[in-house]
Design a protein that fits this description.
Blueprint: E1 7-9, E2 15-17, H1 21-40, H2 43-61, H3 69-95, H4 121-124, H5 127-140, H6 143-154, H7 159-166, H8 170-187
Antiparallel strand pairs: 1-2
Length: 193
């Protein structure tokens, strides 16, 4: 078993470096925040979720091989989002509907992090309209469809990894993804090139 930061032999005897845990967390924090924000609809909850997941991830999984980090991280993120919904439901039951945070909040630096999984150049001409339409369309998807779409397309997890993260069968992942893609195509029809 190799640990993060070690050099391992690559093809033709070349050495490749395994990413450090810090580099891994930096690579996923922006997308994790967006996923949590889309799921919860609250920037503050999303920030809390990502921070909690990262702290717990470092404590629990830092000694795991780096190839296991991505599925483990997104499984932890998914579970933490579900916990947030459970707490909201309990809070609503006891205290009724509480107002959400004000939109007058200053810009969050996490939002300015680069997203390495942006749409390709074929969509660049549509600019911010496409991004806003996509985020809106994703927010309208049922939770399981949104999760399948984000884990498979944004994060590039395999069907098996996505199934482990979502806690369902591979067939369910395929069904959720297919339905998400169909819904997104319909909602984003006006942006077709």
């Amino acid at each position: 078993m190799t640990m993060a930061g070690e050099a391992v032999p690559g093809a033709a005897g070349e050495q490749r470096s395994i990413p450090s845990l810090d580099d891994f967390l930096k690579s996923v924090e922006g997308r994790a925040f967006k996923m949590a924000w889309m799921a919860t609809g609250s920037r503050e909850d999303a920030l809390d979720i990502v921070q909690d997941v990262m702290m717990a991830f470092v404590r629990r999984y830092r000694r795991k091989p780096s190839e296991q980090w991505r599925p483990l991280f997104f499984r932890a993120l998914d579970n933490r989002i579900k916990d947030c919904f459970r707490r909201r439901k309990a809070r609503f039951r006891w205290f009724g509907h509480q107002a959400t945070a004000s939109d007058n909040q200053p810009e969050d630096p996490v939002e300015r992090l680069p997203d390495h999984n942006r749409p390709g150049p074929e969509l660049a001409g549509h600019g911010e309209d496409v991004a806003e339409a996509l985020e809106s369309a994703l927010a309208q998807l049922p939770d399981r469809q949104r999760q399948a779409f984000l884990f498979r397309t944004w994060e590039g997890l395999s069907v098996a990894e996505t199934a482990r993260v979502m806690g369902c069968s591979q067939g369910s992942v395929k069904t959720h993804l297919s339905r998400a893609m169909q819904s997104l195509r319909q909602q984003l029809e006006s942006f077709r090139i």
